[in-house]
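Case study 2.
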Amino acid sequence: MERVLKLLTILFVSLIFCSTGLAKETELIGAGATFPYPLYSKMFDVYNKEYGVKVNYQSIGSGGGIRQLINKTVDFGGSDAIMSDKDMQEAVAPILHIPICAGADVITYNLTGDPELKFTPDIIADIFLGKIKKWNDPRISALNPGIKAPDMAVTVIHRSDGSGTTFIFSDYLCKVSSEWKEKVGRGTSLNWPTGLGGKGNEGVAGLVKQTPGSIGYVELIYALQNKMLYGTVKNKKGKFVTSTIASISLAADTDLPDDMRVSLTDTGAADGYPISGFTWVLVYKEQNYADRSEEKARQLVKMLWWMTHEGQKQAEPLHYSPLSKKAAEKAEKLIRSISYKGNPLMK
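Prediction:
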């Protein structure tokens, strides 16, 4: 009897170790962009329930996600910014940009009476350059007749962390303002001419809500979730456009390169919203690194395929624009190119 009990104990302990190993093997770790965090939270919850694979994603900003992927401390990074050539070289091995959806930065503000404001590219640039200092500036008033703007200081709110949201915003400003391009430039982190910094989209949204007379930029979903005002923006074709799923999709209706490292800002589409951009999952093309198992690499590829196919139905209810057919086809080719020891993980 004692021998039977010992055998049962050994079997039980073995089962525990096996199940623990399996749980580890089917847990994927990611970090990066806050821009798609509401969507990723939903996607990963659904995926876990359907396939039993836990995905732990930390919303730390695109800059942090890129850094952790380069350091090989995560299975994938999340970014709204295209990786720079310098970062790609530092990674040594090729990194793929898998598009997941498109979204947009909106110009949100905190003014008494909740006026619906219009913004032109030059006014946006000059506000964030610190050149427009009052809400009743003649240029804002002329653009918004019938709205009595207050004699109140403009307080700029921007991101304090490395951020793809900032990259999209600064990329747009570089295209529409030569002064911004020369003095500030584009990037995930900037030397801001003026304003207060908030960490993450959540931090910027919180500061704007708490600060009368403030203005900032956040991803559309954060403005909607927090019931914040956001303005319409004049696009390249001269039309004032509100950020919607439809106008973001139209911005993405453009020629797409095979590597999907593409900017959507300042779109030429007549009805496209001009501060739009893709968000990407970043992964190493060759998955045999840092003692990774082939099974873990295969689980990552399966998840990416699901995110760009079945998972797309989660996008629109959360105010993200699903991948167009053209973008989805590009994503498929990229995912099919992921390998382990040189062998494709998808047959």
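DSSP finds 13 helices and 14 strands in the chain.
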